[in-house]
Amino acid sequence: MAILDLATIILFVVFMIPFGMVVLNSAKTSKEIIFNAIALPSDWSQLAVNVSLIFNNPTVDYLGAFFDSILITAFSLLVIILFSSMCAWILVRNKTRWSMVLFMAFVAAMVIPFQVLMYPLVRWMRVSGDFMHIRLLGTIPGIVFAYLGFGSPLSIFVFHGFIKNIPYELEESATIDGCSRSRTFFAIVFPLLQPIIVTVLILNGIWIWNDYLLPLLLLGSNGVVQTIPIAVTAFAGAYLKQWDLILTSTLIAMLPVIVLYLFAQKYIIKGMVEGSIK
Amino acid sequence: MSSLGVEAMKQNRMVNILFVAPCIFAFVMIIIIPFFFGLYFSMTDWNGINNAANFVGFNNFRNLLSTPDFLYSFLITIAYTILSIVFVNIVSFTLALIVTSKLRRRNFYRAGFFVPYLIGGIVLGYIWQFLLNNILVGIGNSLAITALQTSFLSLPNSVIWTMAVVNTWQYAGYIMLIYVASIQSIPASLMEAASVDGASYVSRVFHILIPMMANAFTISLFLTLTTSFKQFDMNLTLTNGGPATRFLDVPVKASQLLAMNIFSTATANRMAEAQAKAVVLFIALLVVSLLQVSINKKKEVEM
């Protein structure tokens, strides 16, 4: 047992070294990193200097990207949760051939890689946006709509599996008591979905927060609306090999997710497992 | 159903349609229409600069067969995928055994090993670029270890292996969770009974645990296969395709995986060619993953 203990500790430390190195070198100047990247920083207050250099950078609006990322992730999760659960509920309860066909279409679409869709999507969003007189490219509503399209198949699939196991009697008695169909969903079914909503939130949340290609294609690398991963690449592109700034920007990018994980660890682990096994 | 009048039935149908409409609209607009456009564009001469797209049949696909950089990307993507599947599953299965043992602080370890998965591919690519190019080379220089003095990312022979290792760091904790859930669903009495009968730990793992976890292996192999085959983000920020090497007498980028090859083709305004490559990626992925799942399912039945 002692050997296993020791081996695990060593393994764990090795796993955590990358994070340690990011923290250490985010608190150094570029010169210090070149001189000795492994040493402890001579002055930890350099971390605050680097962070302020990033937030006050003239070329990359990091703070703006940060807020845009939060808005995009939050709104996308909101519409995915709401509309996918509504759709999945109808597909479960309305037992017709159409429901079967639709469900199968959603499931089948999950095998299509993003690479097949991305360039036609950009062209199509420009054309259809012009036609409807809505700007879909370069705007938050446009990308949120795209995330609904990409996120709903898996979310409907996960909700579908959960709703199937909710006893129908509950809804039946509500209908007999005169509850309308939409009220039955929002007042009775939706509250019961809470545990699976957490799963759907986590699966989509980690993906959308870290996603790079879709925002790059829809928002552009120097559009008005930006996301954190785009800002990080912009930084690395503008300050080639200036590791003090690049590493600090990665530190700021991963901090929110890690802090969230520290608080919601139990739910996140449960959500990831349920999402993959289903 | 006499209590439900014709009016109420109509109203129900209205609600049905309203409830499914948002998802179906988004699904059609974002996936279905671009998908069929995508298939069509792969058979045109679309360049991405203007909207013109003349039908050229299967020309783009035929040309791919004589495009060395594409063939090379295809081959190294297969190599990278195989390496990733092996590394990720061995490491994650070992981690799962560790965190389900009677070890102290096992829940802490389980939570910790998962953390790399939370960091996106873009961010972790930069972090590992720094680790491999600066930290490791720095150690090599100060300790005079020749093997470490050149970065693993700068040699065509080691770069794919290195990317598979970085990928393992990212995914092992996630796949571990799937194995852990599977191990925990096996009654502990089974392992204990075998232990009483004198079976060694290794033989218990191979003869009891692994056969009972067949379903978890199907899922894990599928997930590692599909994510590695489509790898892009980490590829972009860790190596950006480099270093340079030669294939079929032509200079190619040693670590440019398929998804990145598609991206750089499109960036060079060869949209239709990129689209044809994407369609090939789609078909290859479909065939391989269907094959993997059906083989695994067959094995599940046998066990």
User: What multimeric state do the chains show?
Assistant: heterodimer
List low-pLDDT spans of chain B.
none
Report the strand count of chain A. 0
Radius of gyration of chain A: 23 Å
Cα end-to-end separation of chain A: 35 Å
Write structural notes for this entry:
The complex is a heterodimer of chains A (278) and B (303). Chain A is mainly alpha-helical and 278 residues long. Chain A has 2 domains: 43 residues, no CATH class; 216 residues, MetI-like fold (Orthogonal Bundle). Chain A contains 13 helices and no strands. Chain B is mainly α and 303 residues long. A two-stranded antiparallel sheet of chain B has the order 1-2. In chain B, β1 and β2 form a beta hairpin. In chain B, α3 runs parallel beside α7, α4 packs across α7 and α12 runs antiparallel to α13. The longest helix of chain B is centred in the N-terminal third of the chain and has 36 residues. Classes of the chains: A mainly alpha (278), B mainly alpha (303). At the A-B interface, α1, α4, α5, α6 and α7 of A face α1, α4, α5, α7 and α11 of B.
What's the quick description here?
The complex is a heterodimer of chains A (278) and B (303). Chain A has 278 residues and is mainly alpha-helical.
Keywords for this entry:
A: 278 residues; mainly alpha; 2 domains; 79% helix; B: 303 residues; MetI-like fold; two-stranded antiparallel sheet; 13 helices; 2 strands; globular
Secondary structure blueprint with pairings:
The complex is a heterodimer of chains A (278) and B (303).
Chain A: H1 2-26, H2 30-35, H3 46-55, H4 62-93, H5 97-109, H6 114-132, H7 140-163, H8 169-176, H9 181-192, H10 194-210, H11 213-219, H12 228-238, H13 243-277
Helix pairs in contact in A: 1-13, 3-13, 4-5, 4-7, 4-10, 4-12, 5-7, 7-10, 8-9, 10-13, 12-13
Chain B: H1 6-41, H2 59-64, H3 68-99, H4 106-118, H5 121-143, H6 146-149, H7 159-184, H8 188-196, H9 201-212, H10 214-229, H11 233-238, E1 244-247, E2 250-253, H12 258-267, H13 271-302
Helix pairs in contact in B: 3-4, 3-7, 3-10, 4-7, 7-10, 8-9, 10-13, 12-13
